[in-house]
Amino acid sequence: MPITQLRRPASDPRTPHSPAGANPRPPQVIQVHDLVVSYGSTRAVDGIGFEVRAGEVFALLGTNGAGKTTTLDVLEGFRRPAEGSVSVLGADPYREHDRISPRIGVMLQDAGFFEDLSVRATIRAWRRFHRRARSVDDSLELVGLTHRARARVRQLSGGERRRLDLALALLGHPELLFLDEPTTGIDPEGRRHTLRIIRDLVAGGMTVVLTTHYLDEAQELADRLAIMHRGRIQVSGTVDQVLAQHCGSRVRCAIPAEVAEAPEVRAVLHARGAEVQRHAGELRVSFDTSDPQADLLPLLTTAARAGAQARDLTVERRTLEDVFLALAESQEQ
Amino acid sequence: MSDMTIGRTLRLLPAQIRLSQQVYWRDIAFAIMGAVMPLVLGLAPAALASESLVYEGVSQRAWLLSSGISAAMLFVVYNVINSAARRREQRIYKRLRCTPAPAHSILLGEAISAAIPAIGQVAIIMVAGHYWLGVAWPVHWPLVIATVVIGLISLAMLAFGVSGLLPSGEIATWIVTPVLAGLMYLSGAFGAIPDNPVLRSIHRYVPSAELTDAMRIGYLGRDVHGFTVGAPVDLAAAAHAAYLPLLLLLVWAAVGLMLFNSFFRWEPRAR
Predict the structure, then answer these.
(1) Range(s) of chain A covered by CATH 3.40.50.300
(2) Distance of alpha carbon A212 from the chain centroid
(3) Nearest-CA distance from B14 to chain A in Å?
(4) ipTM of the complex
(5) Which pick of A19, A135, A276, B151 has the fewest CB atoms within 10 Å?
(6) pLDDT for position A247
(7) Burial class (CB in 10 A: 0-12, 13-18, 19+), A37
(8) What is the DSSP string of A13-27?
(9) Could you tell me how many CB contacts below 8 A there are between chain A and chain B?
(10) What average pLDDT score do residues A207-223 get?
(11) Quick check: B86 contacting A, CB < 8 Å?
(12) A65 to chain B: nearest residue by CA?
């Protein structure tokens, strides 16, 4: 199944941005307020806040060192916040880790295995820690490692280790799943397989918090996201909201020079800071807009009145990657 | 710790012990190294001693064999610290902590698992001492068994607690080796502690010295304190003589637990 089909439809009752009043909002599973985590004098996480509701996929994005993994460490109960408060499944994840741990699955970014155990033996050993665990065969099949069941962990490729990681995280049928870079190092087919697993789990009601460097992945999977940079959340909201607020769409077209001279067209091009290049008697125009229809209307009607045509017209929706790069660049400046 | 956590700690303890044991025996090089050194240390001094030499009514071989057993048990410190530092470095403990297993379930499971091969080594030393070196069986079996169990669990827990203070796996070996040598020296297992006021005051509280005293009392059936050998005692009197060393070993176990609770980290210290 192509990745582009993975996103839940907006009409899905669990989708957080479903019309108000149509369904009661799902309960909050995670609440983070003014979270600060420091390493010595460095603030790795600097006063962030967000919430995650039951059944949604929340993506934490950001550059390396942005504070994503540190935030996950706090949510998973490995690190105590220096300031602020965190609630996971109604508990303080650091002080009450043992209370909530059976309800949580964690796929760590970089955690070791016992290298001399086989894949099957590893899953079997980890099963013993759960009261109601998936069977070994189901787990192997779920992550596509059945053919590697007898292999020792040290013989697995990077992608296969990530799959084993996912199998261990899912053993206890968790309600809340933390995925730290779940598809890093996995080949495209394996990545698609992993995303399909996540999509199916979410369809079954699981709440997922993930970090990823693959922005297309976040764009397709996440209901809501937050982009972190240097310990702070720079942007957050649904994917649509983030895209609409930052850049929106890129419009490109070629118009006759006389159309560009019309005052209403000039006003739009000026307001949008359009790039204009003269080429063979026409102007090639490109600009960013959050409302392509409103901005194109004067341009197209003027062209129509002049009996001219706006050629090679494209409206290209900006991606999360564009937003991400723009944010990172603006922060550097 | 809540009742729920205590219940889950006990319920998941066998799972952790089983996993730790499974992994221990897979790493055969580490297992052999961990097995051979204590056996050599436990048997060699008694084997080199004169068969006929008797001191205060105790054969030198019996004396050195009981001392050797306690010295062999000290190696549990070396094994636990090295393996704990290695597993923390590889983030295996962090992965284990992502399971529903409570922290103390992992600590106790690892400590008990480390004690299991050591119990085997003690048994081998006793059997070899009896059949090969002609040393009599222990006089007070219950006391010897209690000393072995309490001693090993205490040392393992103490080592686990201390491992949280060590900066990295590489440095752990360099720190633990002289510490182990110091513990052996202060145990008095192979030689008297010099009559120095500082050493004498430290010696009284060092876990290896307590272990050696308790083992000698149970094995030889004598009221032993350091190199002072008393008259033969029955089990009740032996237990009375050994209760303080055993109690101090339990205090050391509590110190290990406290260090674990305060300083143990589930992932490498440096980020």
Answers:
(1) 3-112+172-191+198-244
(2) 6
(3) 9
(4) 0.83
(5) A19
(6) 63
(7) buried
(8) TT-TTSPBTTBPPPP
(9) 77
(10) 90
(11) no
(12) B271
